[in-house]
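Lecture notes, part 5. Sequence design as translation. It can be helpful to think of inverse folding as translation between two languages: the language of shapes and the language of residues. The source text, in structure tokens, appears below.
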């Protein structure tokens, strides 16, 4: 018999995964080229050739026992130094290797951070819409995720609502920038105002309120948009980064957490994250990927490929009459459902072999998320199907 805690999770197994399975079913019926599956945030751009080359070089050139062995639970010293140096070069920070913990992707990193800071009954505030796993991650530590609305026009943080939602129990505010599912980037102005609010609330309650910034999409920012680096604006900030999207390595499980010295209890906090990583069963981040990173820390994905997709899909959909905020980052469009029941809208789309995810899965009903990390041809070929869908709703 499975646990009471797991039962609802098994019953509500992620809508995205369900869609993914549905995509496979439709592909077997109609052929892959006739199914337009926009359900999953799995990068379609291959990992840079230099990453694969570096993995091969590590295996050929480095000591096999070291490459496959345990290391300090925080990660290899030279990998953490490479991460710290790269951040310092790019964002003017002053991290050393002691500020960096290597983790297994953002999912592993967020869990380690939350385990490190949460006691039962604590609260973590986040802006809706949000990545649905946040709720489960926070519940893992018997704490509560408090949903705060975003501005309904811009999907930027609603700071008045956040101010009202913060209580004595709030240990952290969790943001995701660039954002899944909206594709919006919180600009410097938003981060400055958020930092001011949190500093004021810390004074009121007399304890740290950590700002956790979940940043798997940091490098996916278009038209020169800048993603503010939160530790520059707020002392009690923690950055959780992943190479899943930026180097197209989601199956490899590699990322890092950065904790600045000026964060409250920085040394204890870093140590707690390292131990949380171990006792959660990750032990340490995958060794081969850490060795690769020493050689590839500043490698970049083919941003152009996503940008072409973004432009084609955004223009194609808005021309048909669909409404959405123009995404500046990540690889998602968050489109307003032409009917309030967006699940019904998803069902209608399936008639044209189009698959996307209902906004309810991101605590934001009335919208759908379209992941455009697919081939350019998939988008091009899907546009006539989207046009038919728009006609069904008399959009134009
Ligand atoms: N956070 C957000 C907002 C995501 O979209 C994802 C994955 O899609 C994750 C975290 C988990 O990423 P990772 O593969 O690095 O664990």
């Amino acid at each position: 018999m499975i646990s009471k805690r797991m039962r609802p999770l098994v019953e509500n197994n992620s809508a995205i995964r369900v869609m993914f399975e549905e995509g496979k079913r439709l592909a077997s019926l109609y052929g892959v080229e006739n199914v337009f599956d926009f359900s999953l945030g799995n990068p379609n751009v291959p990992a840079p050739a230099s990453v694969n080359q570096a993995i091969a070089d590590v295996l050929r050139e480095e000591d096999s026992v070291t490459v496959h062995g345990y290391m300090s639970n925080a990660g290899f010293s030279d990998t953490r130094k490479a991460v710290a140096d790269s951040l310092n070069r790019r964002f003017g920070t002053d991290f050393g290797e002691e500020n960096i913990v290597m983790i297994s992707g953002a999912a592993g990193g967020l869990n380690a951070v939350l385990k490190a800071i949460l006691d039962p009954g604590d609260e973590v505030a986040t802006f809706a819409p949000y990545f649905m796993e946040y709720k489960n991650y926070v519940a893992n530590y018997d704490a509560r995720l408090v949903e705060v609305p975003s501005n309904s026009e811009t999907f930027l943080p609603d700071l008045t609502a956040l101010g009202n939602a913060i209580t004595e129990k709030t240990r952290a505010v969790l943001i995701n920038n660039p954002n899944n599912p909206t594709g919006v980037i919180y600009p410097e102005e938003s981060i400055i105002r958020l930092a001011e609010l949190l500093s004021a609330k810390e004074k009121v309650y007399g304890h740290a309120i950590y700002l956790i910034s979940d940043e798997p999409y940091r490098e996916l920012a278009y038209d020169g948009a800048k993603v503010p680096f939160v530790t520059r604006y707020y002392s009690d900030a923690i950055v959780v980064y992943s190479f899943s999207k930026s180097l197209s390595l989601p199956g490899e499980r590699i990322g890092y957490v950065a904790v600045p010295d000026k964060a409250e209890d920085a040394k204890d906090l870093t140590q707690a994250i390292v131990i949380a990583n171990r006792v959660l069963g990750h032990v340490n981040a995958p060794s081969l990927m850490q060795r690769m990173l020493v050689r590839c820390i500043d490698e970049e994905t083919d941003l152009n490929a996503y940008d072409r997709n973004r432009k084609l899909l955004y223009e194609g959909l808005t021309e048909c009459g669909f409404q959405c905020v123009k995404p500046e980052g990540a690889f998602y469009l968050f489109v307003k459902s032409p009917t309030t029941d967006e699940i019904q809208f998803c069902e209608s789309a399936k008639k044209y072999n189009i698959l996307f995810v209902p906004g309810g899965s991101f605590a934001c009903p009335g919208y759908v998320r379209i992941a455009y990390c697919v081939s350019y041809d998939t988008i091009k070929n899907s546009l006539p199907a989207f046009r038919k869908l728009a006609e069904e709703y008399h959009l134009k």
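The translated text above is only one of many valid answers, since several sequences can fold into similar shapes. The first strand starts at residue 36 and ends at 37.
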